[in-house]
Amino acid sequence: MLGWVSRLLARSGSGGGVELALTGSDPRVRAPIAASANMLHAALPGGQPPPLAATEDARLLLRADGEEGQEDDEPWPAARRRAYFRRPDRRRLHAFSPHHVYTFHTWDKSLGYADCRLHTGLGGGVDLAPYLGGLPLQLLLEDADSGAVAMHLDVATGRQAGAGAGAAAGVGAGGKRVGAV
After folding, report:
1. d(CA 136, CA 164)
2. Tens digit of pLDDT for each residue in 32-63?
3. Are 106 and 46 in contact (CB under 8 A)?
4. Beta bridge mates, 163
5. Cα–Cα distance, 124 to 5 (Å, whole number)
6. Position 6 in a domain
7. Fewest C-beta atoms under 10 Å: which of 17, 91, 143, 180?
8. C-alpha 162: how far from chain center
9. Are residues 115 and 149 in the same domain?
10. Do residue 162 and residue 150 come from a single domain?
11. Which stretches make up the Domain of unknown function at the cortex domain (predicted)?
12. Which domain does 166 fall in, by range?
């Protein structure tokens, strides 16, 4: 069932580097954050807005291009930023600077984090919990070149939290405790 859903979603996806593998020994949905985040805000330290008040402003990230997204330009709408970063050649022109503070808002209409269901858009869905082997959904922010993990967030559903203290306590892969956000 998940193999069929993977193929269906991959065909209807908008590209942009999305890697979709819902079956096998390493199930994952991976996408470049600059091309997939619903909102991205880049700021200098001390100039960042409160996380829930942040609005789209990727000018600091886009300045590396030299032609687009200059400091005095108006911030691009999120749709324009996502479309721009869907192209791999453009993503290679930019890097997330450790000297900036980034705020991301991201959500997914096809994945219900609360109930751990993949909504197929066909009036139904697939319960992912049996495929996760008791593990929570994991959201990772990885370096594209090295694969180093910059952020690891476990999302435990109510069913998982009730099933064991490990998921509720934020114990991630390898039994390491993961920080709460």
Report:
1. 11
2. 888 888 899 999 999 999 999 999 999 988 87
3. no
4. none
5. 11
6. yes
7. 180
8. 26
9. yes
10. yes
11. 22-149
12. 2-31+108-175
